[in-house]
């Protein structure tokens, strides 16, 4: 009889425990659902006030890292404080704002996608959490998984124009955003002002319009237009690239390392190089076609030839740095600086390559001498080392120069590795 009572009590206890666990699980699920609904409602309310929501560390963890989540968040990590000296962060923010506004006021708007911003000065812990050391960075946080490598936008390759951001978001979220840029009347005002000035000038010179038939003026204008178009100014207008780029080593890059991109200053450099080449061609043509002092014509021809050869070789070297594999190089030949090792008395060499790069060939750090703090670069690659001690360490790790023309350098570096 006691056994039956104990059995009944045990079974009853199991039923009670089952109902308690089930009730707790149901309450937990309802609580999660309530929290999720509250988070979505809060995000929606904040989006109604501003298209881009500003997050600090706590809000980022509450709305982006918290689970469950049935919405995507696109976050721009930036540093727009004046002391951070991030020149492109403001431009990137303006483009990001255009995309957020285009989505917010479109028929595609829903509470499945939100735009947010984390400034380094407001959420440094977020940057540490995600191991970010550059800005700006655009990241997509999907609803049911961790961000992949493709969820970070490659702004070095595609830029950060609003159209590029919208295209990248379409690939990650299947939400196609049609970008609507606010009207910019400054261009229209400038055009009207220009036409007014030209009309006023023509009116003042209405009795003497012979300059309109001047071939030199029209020729200079046509050549200048060609310079602007060939240099990539139209690409700059469409893509909105940065003026220059700050490298990871702290230096400044004026030339983009890929044929798929460029910087604004790079276009100005190309304009100057092309103009110098054309000037040299004009000097040689004028020296050959005009009659006059033979000595003066010879000087003009030599100056023109030097301009063409020098600046054409420079523009070819820029082309090679962007499109690797072409057998172009600068006209300047190699030169060497040698000295004796303080440790082994063996010869050490700093070799100046044809493209103006330096390579250090030595075994011991103490042999660097006055070149200890000199920025060095391995030729035909995009590996920069500053100061020279970084290159010294890389030699001991056995870094290989991937260029068939650098056999002696490759052998020396490999020998140092042994």
TrEMBL record:
Primary localization class, coarse: endoplasmic reticulum
Alphabetical list of SUPFAM superfamilies matching this protein: Thioredoxin-like
Signal peptide: 1-26
Pathway in which this enzyme or protein is active: Protein modification
Membrane topology of the entry: Multi-pass membrane protein
Pfam families: OST3_OST6
Repeat as UniProt keyword: no
Subcellular locations according to the entry: Endoplasmic reticulum membrane
InterPro entries tied to this protein: OligosaccharylTrfase_OST3/OST6, Thioredoxin-like_sf
Listed transmembrane segments: 185-204, 216-235, 268-287, 299-319
Gene Ontology BP, a term: magnesium ion transport
Keywords, comma-separated and alphabetical: Disulfide bond, Endoplasmic reticulum, Magnesium, Membrane, Signal, Transmembrane, Transmembrane helix, Transport
GO terms for cellular component: oligosaccharyltransferase complex
Main function: Subunit of the oligosaccharyl transferase (OST) complex that catalyzes the initial transfer of a defined glycan (Glc(3)Man(9)GlcNAc(2) in eukaryotes) from the lipid carrier dolichol-pyrophosphate to an asparagine residue within an Asn-X-Ser/Thr consensus motif in nascent polypeptide chains, the first step in protein N-glycosylation. N-glycosylation occurs cotranslationally and the complex associates with the Sec61 complex at the channel-forming translocon complex that mediates protein translocation across the endoplasmic reticulum (ER). All subunits are required for a maximal enzyme activity.
Family to which this protein belongs: Belongs to the OST3/OST6 family.
Official protein name in the record: Magnesium transporter protein 1
Organism (species): Timema genevievae (Walking stick)
Lineage, uppermost ranks: Eukaryota, Metazoa, Ecdysozoa, Arthropoda, Hexapoda
